[in-house]
Amino acid sequence: MAELGEPGFRAKQVIDWTFAKRAVSIEAMSNLSKGLRQTLAERYVTRTMTISTVTGSKDTTRKFLLKLHDGRFVETVLIPANPALYGEASDRHTLCVSSQVGCAYDCKFCASGLAGFARNLTAAEIVEQIVQVEAYSGERMDNLVFMGMGEPLANYSHVTKAIEILNSEWGIGIGARHMTVSTSGLAPQIKRLADFPLQIRLAISLHGASDEVRDKIMPVNKKHNLDELFEALAYWRSKRKQHITFEYILIQGVNDGLDQAHRLAKRAKGLDAKVNLIPYNTVEGLQWVRPTEEVQDAFRDVLLNAGVKATLRREKGHDIAAACGQLRLRQETEDGIIESPIPEKRITIGAGA
Q1: What is the mean pLDDT of each run of 10 residues along the chain (353 residues)?
Q2: Is 225 known to sit in a ligand binding site?
Q3: All residues at 6 or more sequence positions from 159 whose CB lies less than 8 Å from its CB, including other chains
Q4: What is the CATH number of the domain that holds 195?
Q5: What gap in Å lies between CA 130 and CA 2, rounded to an integer?
């Protein structure tokens, strides 16, 4: 506004229209002069994406496929409250947001990286996912997880800027402790995030309790192995009181053995961390298989018997392709943006496992 020769209070007006009133156009900002609205409309837009597809229903997990201004797609998943945890009357809503279009980290169970990495999302595009879903659903999002498409810490500057906007009183107004950043294990960025001033939470996509097993599932482990990762996590714990959460997808015959359960228990206890066990969510084109419920329960029981706080999530959304990247992959393939959505090397690795 200063660059446009406008008084400072105009900035507050625009912010109020953007976040409090959720104006869908600059023309709707009625307390700005016509000339200023015209000038702003020539330079800026209030929305950069549209909702392309919604799967699921109001009382279940809903996946939103959002079309970006450049024709690419990202996914955002709305997860309703679990009555067993929050009570039958709970209206808590968790939104799983994306930070990148695609992903470069090639985790072997995930659809996000099947077609590779396209680009980072801007802070605006990250924030707008919340704005779009709230407008569509009529529900306020009170819990955010950066666990959608992409590696949040590989887009550090835009993700942290978005968190500041999401947390601020003039922005979306979500408490810092209600936002969780999930990373595949970028150790240097974990340390950097530990010094970030807002008290956000941290989740680690672990999926293997030894380097031998984790190397098969997560290529990032070859760059930042478990010793380096856990040294960074120890630094995080020295800076913050919040418990770290380990996300651990159970894959039959790969990482579901009781030897891995015992190793995981030891590592989790060392950091007083929580463990969230997730049976593998089928991805078309990958030949991984989820373990039986008996194997899942036995793995969980090892953790519980060792005194580790652990949950086993029979995940919601299995029937709506809720695994990260699946819906986007299908749409961009149909649109001709992605010519070969499932590289041959991924099928070979899946079969070999």
Answers
A1: 94 96 96 96 94 87 95 93 51 91 87 80 97 94 94 98 97 97 97 97 97 96 97 96 94 97 98 96 79 97 98 64 49 47 31 26
A2: no
A3: 99, 123, 126, 146, 152, 153, 181
A4: 3.20.20.70
A5: 29
Domain of residue 27, residue span = 1-46
6 and 60 fall within a common domain? no
CA distances from 178 to 85, 96, 221, 331, 349 (A): 16, 12, 28, 31, 37
* CA 203 to the chain's CA centroid: 10
Catalytic residue among 125, 128, 324, 332: 324
Cβ proximity of 79 and 93 under 8 Å? yes
150 is in an annotated binding site: yes
Q: In this structure, are 287 and 346 located in the same domain?
A: yes
**243 and 120 co-located in one domain:** yes
Q: Is 334 a catalytic residue?
A: no
CB 200 within 8 A of CB 213: no
The answer to whether 103 is annotated as binding is yes
Closest CA to 44 of 74, 66, 11: 11
Backbone dihedral angles phi then psi of residue 65, each to the nearest 5 degrees: -100, 115
* All residues at 6 or more sequence positions from 49 whose CB lies less than 8 Å from its CB, including other chains: 66, 67, 68, 69, 74, 125, 128, 129, 132
User: Which sign does the torsion angle of CA 275, 279, 281, 283 carry?
Assistant: positive
- 324 flagged as catalytic: yes
The catalytic residue among 75, 125, 128, 247 is 75
**How many distinct structural domains can be found in the chain?**
2
| Same-domain check for residues 66 and 40 | no
Judge if 9 and 153 occupy the same domain: no
Same domain, yes or no, for 32 and 167? Answer: no
For the segment 56-112, what is each residue's pLDDT rounded down to a tens digit?
Answer: 877 788 999 999 999 999 999 999 876 444 444 456 789 999 999 999 988 888 877
96 carries a ligand binding annotation: no
- For 40, the token pair is 């702003």
One domain, residues 129 and 29: no
Q: Give Cα separations from 251 to 137, 292, 342 (angstroms).
A: 34, 10, 20
213: its two tokens: 């097993």
